[in-house]
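Marked as duplicate of an earlier ticket. Keeping the data here for the record.
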Amino acid sequence: MTYQQTTYRPRYRRRHRRRRNSHYGVLAVLILLIVIAVPVTVRIVKGISGVILGSDRGQVVYQMENSKAFASSGVVDLGGAAPFRDETDVALVPLSRLCDQFGMTIEWDQVSRTATVKYKKDTARVQADSQTLRFNDQTLTMNAKVRVVNGETYVPARDFCEAFSWQVDELSAEQGGLLIITKSKKALSEKNLQAAASDAIATLGPSRQQLLDGSVVMRVQSDKVLANGASAQMSGEGKRTGEAVVEVDGMPYIPLRAGITALGGTAAFDGQKEWNVSYNGVAATVSADGKAKIDGKRVKGDGIAAYQDEETGVFRVSAPLFAALIGRTYTKLDDGSGMLAFTKMSLDGFDSQKAYLSGMQEQLTAALSGNIPEADAYIALTFDDGPTGAMGAYAKGLTASLLDGLKERGAHATFFMCGYRIKDFNSHMARYLAEGHELGNHTMDHPAVKLTGLDADGVYDQVSSTSDLIASFTSHKPTVMRPVGGGVNGTVKEQMRGLGLPIVNWSLDTEDWRVRDAESVKNAIVSKVKDGDIVLMHDIYPTTVQGVLAAIDELQSRTDKTYAFVTVSELAAIKGISLEAGVVYNDLSDATAQSIADGTYSPTEFS
């Protein structure tokens, strides 16, 4: 406010003094209003930000399978107790962590396995393995059972929190896989919900689905690649040998042509000095000395390099250069496993996401990096129900003797093992992978009702427990599984998808289990086997071992046609087939490869 200086007559001095005093009064009132208004405004702003970000003990944002959460104070460490969704897609959260965040008290009765939670005047009681929620004097039924996992009690988030009249918002995996719990009776607006989600993802990182979308995962010494969660083969020029990632002086190098081709791009040498690369609509060039240009602009940064392997002739580029060529950020996940990730966003600080990608190590086997001979027919020999120990003349063990015979003949096979037999016969377990064979899962107990007679939990337990047992002896989980009797239904396929296991049945049954005759086993193979067949046998009969080795000898001695005996995954790679979890394969012939390629694949399924 601007005041104009004026001269007043004496008789107006008193009035002017009054006016001046009134100005002071107005200013005093304004100051008082400001003093009062500032805290009110702060409280209003804090209230608004609390809705968006969660004031202390007012809001928490969980992300499925992430051991950290997000609140206004920042990251909340859940102590390894990550929330998850059960088989019916209900979100469960760790109860003690929820209580910590919202200022609730919790008491646990070990005898009755009951948790009692108190908040102000409200009391809630839940019991392990029960869907009942006792809230004050009400008895409510929740959509899922309370679970105890690794000593932590998990409750269905929505049912439990809504009993307290709190708001629960869920976002899909594509939107971040978030669960937003707000201690408020008023629902979040769409704007505030998106703001909370954006802040949480920036802090917690992408959901698993977001992480897989556009991600490429590789491993040193593996010639397979995972792109968008699906497996692809980095094949050599002749498709009989793979081109694996190698490490030189601590830096991973990727075979340029095989790596780009496996991802759906192209890479070709111009015959003089440059490789021309095209991926996802972007053109690039790479020279022999590692200098590269993308859309005409020079690629700069640490670790940009390339070299040509003098022994194999394979041209390789460093992981940072490969990341630039496919428009991704490079992260070396674990120095011990050799896992590499190329993702849309940096994984710095996102430990849960790194751990998730590192866990894909089992899917990155060395499918074709062994010496597989060129042949007219490629056959997958498979053995069920073993392993088997000493038996009759096989004092060192029947399965161990079979391994000796396969090694002498340069033959690979896939062994679908039963957990209960591994517990008794395991002295040879280290030989499978070392000698080029493949680990297969054939359930823990070989249930008489087949897997089709079990519920989802029963199927899961039979298979997952066997994979864990095999890994305890070999340091690797199985890469394929075979259901008992080949029995498959929707439940079996769903559980195998979750466990990441393709379902492998067979196209040629030797019926060794019925005839128990070595000559019959040999003739069944020799007279019927063809390219792409998966042969069913059991390494629990001496006649099977004798018969299959005799069949290999006869087929390898033929002059009119050559045969190679490979694992299931090797056969799939040779045929250009990416085995998918939960999908049934009876054979891996050229015809099957073509039907998969043109989208008409529909395998026969046994019940």
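See parent ticket for discussion. The first helix runs from residue 13 to 53.
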